[in-house]
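Predict the 3D structure for this chain.
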Amino acid sequence: MKLLLKYFLLLCFLIASSCSGRKDNAQPNSFFSLKSYFNQQIDALQKSGADIIKKTSVDNEATEEYRIVDADWRREFDSFIAADISGEEFTNAYRIDTADEKTDSIHIAKTIRYTAIDNEQRIRLIVVQLDSADHISRIEIEAYKKSVFSIVTESLVYVPMKYFTITNYEDSGWLGKNELKVAGFIVIKS
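Done. Predicted structure below.
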């Protein structure tokens, strides 16, 4: 009976220690949050009353240009927010590389690259460039989606408070190839 009790206590100890070990191994995701960043940008742009001069073109043909007053910034940045990889489900899905670059004799800029480890991720690459004061100077995103009908690659670029571009390239095989470019130039009202 004593032997059975010892085994039972040993088993309880092993179960308890293995459960607490799992918590120690869990690491929070420290990826840059596109969602938080663009929510801040949306707030700042709405407060400034900024407009957009938008240019669109399909297959490099005639460009259409128009001005949007009282822009819906959430809608404009929807693709950027949808590219957020800061959730726990992405913790082991991306490799992070950081590089410093001298901009002049005193200042150093930083580039952070999040690269998908496998080809199953829709977001393949995020590049965040920081100036010498650690302010974001540029964000680039590369996305990829493959279906039975087509392959779509999407390239997004944002330069804070200046402009954004969204380029979609679709190859649908039997329907051909299409390219849609949207450029939004931010006009801050004085």
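Residues 1-28 have pLDDT under 50 and may be disordered.
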